[in-house]
Amino acid sequence: xxxxxPCLIIIDMQKGMAQPEAGTRNNSDAELHIAQLLNxxxxxxxxxxxxxxxxxxxxxxxxxxxxxxxFQEALLPLPHEHVVEKNVTDAFINTGLERWLxxxxxxxxxxxxxxxxxxxxASARTAGNLGFKSVVVSDATFAFAMRDYAxxxxxxxxxxxxxxxxxxxxxxxxxxxxxxxxxxAAG
Length: 187
Hints:
By secondary structure, the chain is of the alpha/beta class. The protein has helices at 30-43, 97-103, 116-129, 156-167, 177-186; strands spanning 7-11, 48-53, 82-86, 108-114, 133-142, 146-147, 153-154, 173-175. The strands form 2 sheets. Strands 3-2-1-4-5-8 form a 6-stranded parallel sheet, sandwiched between helices. The model has no long low-confidence stretch (mean pLDDT 95). This is Cysteine hydrolase family protein. It comes from Massilia niabensis.
């Protein structure tokens, strides 16, 4: 008998993240990997949570009423899938997500989405601290290029890799889409 799949948590896959103004990013195939995992989870009847960032700033592309706040078409939640709306980077803060997971007996979660060094990392850290067994899927997450604190420009891949290093082993296990699918198929 196969063990049930962990809950798949898809973070901030909104139209605003696909706009050129979002910046230079890595993992151009992340959406394809997220869709592949989402289809696998749906086929198994497993739990899926979609997280949407709602900005408190009216100037943000993620402000209520802006097109950027909408989910990307290929990753739209189904009516029975849980949607969490957050106002900060961490999907657990003031959202009821922990309670929703606990009530359903979920103790394992898989994180995908954006951005690796902000919402994915913040949410995975909290999940780890709360005792959830967590996986972050390295090729189903992505980051944007940015300057570090010393003013050095870092590529999106560098930002992504450092964020995954921050999480690996301490808060989450880092896996690729293929490795996760092979693990889930093996049960």
